[in-house]
Amino acid sequence: MTGSGSCAEPPLRPYHCGDLPALLALYANAVRSQCAAYYSPQQVQAWSAYAQQQEAVAAAIDRGTTLVSPVAQDDGRLAAFGVLDPGDRLALLYCDAPWSRQGRASALLAALSAHAQAQGVAALRTEASQLSRPLLLRHGWQIEAEETVLFAAERFTRWRMIKTLEPCPST
pLDDT averaged over the chain? Predict the structure, then answer.
């Protein structure tokens, strides 16, 4: 599932505190560039503006397990990132449009799931957007419930989802 015809798996690495400005920009750009087909202009504006609340987003990134996907190996530019916060909840998963549909979100999901599994987590949970719901379904997540939430004075439909993890084999 690569957009460029390459079979190489996208690189992943742990988050470093110097990545924060790039992650905040990536978050806002991903929402603005990919969500217009699913949300109203007002919803897109409200959602993308959340990245400007640096302390709130940074808290989840710093507190959780955060992996990033650089554009290329040893490249300072970031294409995607994912966060588990707490350890059983997929809190953030964003891929910037130029690098979407290249397997980056899938690689992040697999790595974060493997990390949670190694920590003894039995199941992951999340609240999925209209954009991320199909991706999660393809990766074995199941919908628990649809819900409507008020965020920045805008109503959003999202889905509470769960994915059961197999226990790690004992060594």
Answer: 89
